[in-house]
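Researcher: Please translate sequence to structure tokens.
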Amino acid sequence: EMAQQFFSEALAWQKEKGYRVLHESHRKRYLHSPWVARAFVPKFPELKMVADLSHWINIAETNTQDPDLTRVIEKFASRFEHTHCRVGYDHGPQVPDPRADCWLEYMEGHERWWDKIWLALEEAGVKEVTMTPEHGPPNYQICDPKTGSPLADIWDVNHWVALRRQERFAALFGQENTSKVIPSSTQGFEPRTMPGPSILMGKENVGFD
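Model: Translation complete:
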């Protein structure tokens, strides 16, 4: 009841003031869980969100091949007008290094979700969409327990994510429409990713609406 009251009042305030407000799907927020959002968000057709999907995969304790989680994300894809591009996993909101071979599958899975969001927003006629490469520093970032040193250079990680999203945007909407982020002396476009289409393609009756 408190959440329903909060969002009712927040949406009314947004409309009155003419503000564009996107509501977080972060842990410690009401929309922290995909299973909570699945039932709650449809009550508010005007509700727009931030896609902080690294938290949803963590809360769901699953991976990017999960059809139920993917169904929820794709159902609300056109509601996510900003994306926090951080790669989460079954037991945490941030993998140690999404460029590492053992985590590339998770990166590609998040890319499929992020691509779906952009495509859904284009179909809905949204003209502006934003994203943030959001892998955080220690203590968010996993460090060596003996030395306390981060397991990866977080600037390079976020730079790589930005380069990957730039390439995906160009592939989806044309090179002329994308940003102009360039490689640095320490981080280029490698490793390349191959996210592919949605795992739900060709499947029916997936998820619990």
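Researcher: Any highlights?
Model: The longest helix spans residues 104-123.
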